[in-house]
Amino acid sequence: MRNIKMILAYEGTQYAGFQRQVNGPTIQGIVEAKLSQILNHPVSIIGAGRTDAGVHARGQVVNFRTANLLPVAKIHKALNSLLPEDILVLDAVETDQEFHARYSAKNKTYSYSIDNGPLRPLFNRNFVYYYPRQLDLKKIREAIDFLVGAHDFKSFQAAGTNIENTVRKVNFCRLEENDSLIKLVINADGFLYHMVRNIVGTLLMVGNGKMTVEKFREIMEKRDRSLAGPTAPAQGLCLEAVFY
Amino acid sequence: MRNIKMILAYEGTQYAGFQRQVNGPTIQGIVEAKLSQILNHPVSIIGAGRTDAGVHARGQVVNFRTANLLPVAKIHKALNSLLPEDILVLDAVETDQEFHARYSAKNKTYSYSIDNGPLRPLFNRNFVYYYPRQLDLKKIREAIDFLVGAHDFKSFQAAGTNIENTVRKVNFCRLEENDSLIKLVINADGFLYHMVRNIVGTLLMVGNGKMTVEKFREIMEKRDRSLAGPTAPAQGLCLEAVFY
Questions:
Q1: Which of A35, A184, B54, B81 is least enclosed by beta carbons within 10 angstroms?
Q2: ipTM of this complex prediction, to 2 decimal places
Q3: Known catalytic residue: B152?
Q4: How far apart are the CA of B114 and the nearest CA of chain A, in angstroms?
Q5: Domain annotation for chain B: domains and CATH numbers
Q6: Pairs across A and B, CB distance < 8 A
Q7: In chain A, what residues touch B12 (CB-CB under 8 Å)?
Q8: How far is the CA of B42 from the CAs of B29, B68, B69, in angstroms?
Q9: pLDDT digits over A17-54, tens only?
């Protein structure tokens, strides 16, 4: 069986998330249906990250197995011609048998985009969280510094999640500014459920003066989701890249 | 009566164009309906340019008259809260009585965006014309040079249009490149119907080798629409700015 690796980009707006489910269209469901059509057998894909409803990807990685000998370039082309306009295969290659999109991943980069301008966003409205309140970016950057390194991120994990080991290593985290657009870019060896969105919701409280930087640090140490800020909306989040 | 000038941005994808009409929603129709609701009287707006279905604007200018004394900042805010997410008022000011969005305009800038990459566009798919064939940009630039200045652009006017004076003055026209994105930016004292889209359709023939630069020049001189290239699709076009 050949093992095919693909890089996907998609706009998550119209989907119930990456992972296949009964209610609503999903990225996985659609890609699998189109691949099955091309390869003449049922195909299951494995995704590196299970992005939520409304979350986008510029570099989601998936893999799947097939005995069909159709050249990978043809699979790539056929798939792009069948997929809807909001899903695109950027690359497809045949890879070694051991490769597993999820378990082989060493680290991933997510971005979270905030429009901090006075007017609501127009052209990029599905890709940013509109947050017009004044933000102290210096304070947000101070809080961000506490995130880098190996830490227990339980305070930023969605309540009710059953994951025992909530320690993750953040390799880098930075804030980029471009006019009214503020983008948090974060790379870690793994992410807890809602981790980026909960971090962003809490950082915005630091930025708008509702929480001190010291308090932010305390919340991380207390491992208690109820102390942290709200979950920032899905549409600002994007899976940028997965590294192996 | 106060004369109010506004700058509008919109994504034209879902609209039957700027100009009010019976079939399908229009920018004018929606803005007028919302303004009438805010100001408690029927409002008619005058637009600087009548963008077609699917054409976008980053700097459309409109004006309207009202006896209502509501401060212009309040009109601006109320309008943005009532307008759909794909139309946005960037600015609103009270202006002099003589100002007419269309007749007072000295010149306008349009852009036309082409995605010349190997893969179909994803995130900007409603804002570019996907044209994956190889293009000789040097040749396109040579043809563009013939456009600058005062010329009779009848060859680039939509067939069947009844406009006697088809001379327009192009103040500048340039081609910008950014990775696989190619953008034509053109400023003129006026534009004939479909002029930019017909120019682009013809320039693409120069770029792909189907037409020589000399032939392009000849076509301009012959004042015959049937000699020029096809009309490029609406979604690549954007009214960038209107100058007074």
A1: B81
A2: 0.90
A3: no
A4: 17
A5: 2-95 (3.30.70.580), 107-243 (3.30.70.660)
A6: 36
A7: none
A8: 11, 11, 15
A9: 999 998 889 999 999 999 999 999 999 999 999 999 99
B10 touches chain A (CB under 8 A): yes
The one-letter code for the residue type at B155 is: S
**C-alpha span between A172 and A141 (Å, rounded):** 12
Which residue in the list B52, B96, B152, B224 is annotated as catalytic? B52
Quote the longest CA-to-CA distance of chain B: 59
- Token pair of B46, please? 């005058």
Interface touch B122/A80, C-beta < 8 Å: no
> CA-based Rg of chain A, rounded to a whole angstrom?
19
Q: B8 with B87: CB under 8 angstroms?
A: yes
3-state SS, residue B136: coil
pTM for the predicted model, two decimal places: 0.94
* B78 CB within 8 Å of a chain A CB: no
Contact B240, B59 (CB under 8 A): yes
The pLDDT tens digits of the residues spanning B144-181 come to: 999 999 999 999 999 888 888 999 999 999 999 999 99
Sort A242 into a burial class: Cβ within 10 Å, 0-12 / 13-18 / 19+.
buried
